[in-house]
Queue: 4 jobs
Job 1
Amino acid sequence: MKIILIILGIFAFLILLVVCGLAYACHKVKQSFHTDSKTGETTVSIPGMSMSADSGMKFTSSELGVDIYPGADTSKSGNMRMNIAGNSVVTATFTTPDNKDQVIQFYKEKLGSDSTSMEFGDSAILTAKKSEHESITVTVTEGANQAAGKTQFVIQHTTVTKTN
């Protein structure tokens, strides 16, 4: 009988250790998130990664690695700046009343002759590798549901910030 009680006690102690470990991990994750009540900007900072997202983010051409389509409006969702695993990633979502073909032509000219493009249905993806450590992807979608019938495009600029 004593052996059974000892085994049950050890088992209960191990379960308590696991529960405490999970509670501590949840506490650390909760601490890594911060939302600014005035601007709505959400930031996450954990070892090896930081990210910020905000419905009112503004972007520059230098951050995106390419010019922003003239007259485009920044969308309220899908925008972020992130540093992860030695890479900097800036993602911006825009809308324009112009048609998909106009936006695609603009970015084909801006990304240059070394860029690649794929078109399928109402969407297109243009990709350019500016250097060994920098790439740009532009995804264009016409009449996306969340864009209220406008042409939506997403620019993603990835830069390697740390090399091994």
Job 2
Amino acid sequence: MALRDFFRRKKEPIKKKEKQPVKKTEVIKKEIVKPLKKPVKKTDKGLAYSVLKAPHITEKATDLAKNDRYVFKVYKRANKTEIKKAVESLYNVDVINVRTIKVPSKKRIFKGIKGIKKGYKKAIVLIKKGQKIEILPR
């Protein structure tokens, strides 16, 4: 009998909340005021991982490392100032210059199947003489 009573019960209507009237001046203030961005500190390592993907390790890159130039793969939207701050904060070195290169995507055919090799962006970073970056731990 309890099962019949369960199905016979009527559901109670849900009460709607009353909306309070909003003043026009409050709406205008909310649209104009925007939160300020926090200045990036040298110890902020969260920025480094959102800018740098990985070190680009090739023969040419290892030759450049002898002349205090290091090569990194970076995200496509990263600019030179962000890359400079990221390398300085992550490796604790002084960056003098940053050069960026966009490597375009390329069409490839393998066993009759057409495909695309993804493009990427890389950055060549010049650091102060006497400083070193340990990319591969020994």
Job 3
Amino acid sequence: MTVEVDTVIVGAGFAGIGMGIRLARRGDDSFVVLERAADVGGTWRDNTYPGVACDIPSHLYSFSFAPKHDWSRFFAPGAEILDYLRHCALEIADRLRLGTEVLDARWVDDRWHVSTTTGDFSCATLVMAVGRLSEPRMPPTPGIETFPGEAFHSSDWRARDLAGTRVGVVGTGASAVQLVPRLADEARSVVVFQRSAPFVVPRPDFAYSAADIRGFEQNPRSRETLRSELFWGMETGFAARVGLPGHLDSLRQTARDHLEAQVPDPALRADLTPHYEIGCKRVLLSNDYYRTLTLPTVTLEPSALAAVDGERATAQSGAHHDLDVLVFATGFLSTRPPFARRIFGRDGANLADAWSGGMVAYASTTVHGFPNLFVIDGPNASLGHNSAIVMIEAQIGYVLAALDDDAAVLEVSLEAQRRYTDDLDARAADTVWLGGGCESWYVDASTGRLTLLWPDLAYAFRDRLAEFDRAAYL
């Protein structure tokens, strides 16, 4: 039997839960939220490795329409964010369909027909809210099948006792800088395989006092003021991404001072010095990553993992390390999302094929050839300097405005999509993400286009999506 609803939302992370709440609050009750896992939470459900936390301030990394007054810290730990999302999801609990994976979705006779592992759905509107950090990236590693110990991605963490073990960590991104210090507290030894050195700056974290929390509870306006201050403060970070000399120099010097203060050994410091411009890759926040690498039980291998032969892991430098556990903190398939292979639009067009030259979408939300499809947190909808939740809320508002349009079928024109994409490409051309001399997950590897990030201020994105531009649609 096929269940008919007005809207199907795929994914129960921030984007999916937020979209569902906004629909429910305005009285649109003909929708379902499909989630392949057994719980909500998205990346905060999946990533439970030791030390997992957010690097955006808690009061900004949360919904403006569902504020929380009692965040424990300035930067919330992952478990607290997951609890927050679970609490938010209670508002739409009757619309959640957990353990339901989308197999494919096809546009037929002016409706989307969605096939899942638990049944079929038919809807006028399909909202893809699966996020960009949902599909782990596991680099090919010759001989990994011979490794006798456990080898897993950091997003597939399971409770394990690492006392007395020799642990290898592949990667030096955001997950690794949180994970490595915690592993060093427990394991017998830790080896970090570094393909390229990251820029790391201090993490200004602190616990909120009981008085702080009471103040936020008793004076909601103080939360709103703090959120606004955090937002505009983080907006200034964009200046470094477009290479404004004073801002860029200041950020670079902060990172260099942090490295020098925590790593006295000049040889190790040289290995930890990036050879690209700051901001080209994600700038990481940590107070203890560098310090951990100076411990006698921790080894920085300044080259990538090349191969595995039994318990012996060989780096590209030729160095060998005997290991019991291998953790791949190697990121996610972000610029070529696997879900696109399951979406078929007008005349059977496949979304992955439509994105063969890199992801594109008008208003970073709608795609030509795919009527009544809205992608949240997709092409050029992420940020390198501010909160993703601000972007998600802007997109949700845009989708709601589109749903209020009188047209039963909305499809963005190819011309409008091209104009939007050309404008973004032009804005991106002079940013550090394309001119900083690095390879990053922000950029489509096959085309060299910046397809993940919005190459402007967050408030510009919010303003751009504040009104639904009906003239751009067929």
Job 4
Amino acid sequence: MTVVTQTVVIQDGRLRPDGKVALDADDPALVRGLAVFETLRSWEGRVSHLELHLDRLQGSAAALDLPMPERALLRAEVKRAVALLGEEAAVRITLTAGGSRIVRASPLPAPLLQARCASRRHPDHPWLTGRAKHISRAAWVVAVREAGTDEVLWVDGEGLLLEGTWSNVFAVRDGSLYTPADDGRILPGITRQTVLTAARALGLPHQEGPTPAAGPWDELYLSSSLKILCPIVELDGRPALGMGPVGRRLVAAYEATLRRSGDAAGPGAPASRPR
């Protein structure tokens, strides 16, 4: 029987009906920010790219020397949470240094249809790879608040784009797709990987490498599991095109990929996503 709730939370295998979790007051996740997470989604009743997200979660846990639960356990809890929610879900998996695992499923948020962005110098942390998806994001939150935009795009000392505060970045010029390289400074997104695969399948020229924030670009996008491709309509106060022809082709190819892949959530999972 499907139980429809606003949020489904499973902590250490136990369903938390009140949606709250309990952590030891000395858990390093609370006092040091030592925890890692993944955000993913369901699509037409299937959990999208679950194995790729678990791969990245395992890499993040290793980077912070955190315990990694059995993948089969996480896989089952994610599918259970999505099935219990009873509608398309945004899912977050969190692992704390204190050994707690938390799976949270909630209804998909309203999509961000376009984004205003500002660029800021990236706060380099060479002692921790950018590939680790950790919860210590206070600097990111404050940067967006200070900029008064939807996201901040981090740039390096040469003015090259790296990534957004919550997203990867794509740019288009003369029909070619560009995205910053996975050089250890960015979090290589699962959606980023899937968009690049779609570009190859479509025969679109694409390049992973230097991507100047100043452009000039015909199209600019944020990408993430929940945004897919969100057009940037303003960067540092300058207008940008928004959704363009290359972006539309990539979104269509990406959605087709989602329909062909994914793990079934289980009994009671939704058959289709409201559009």
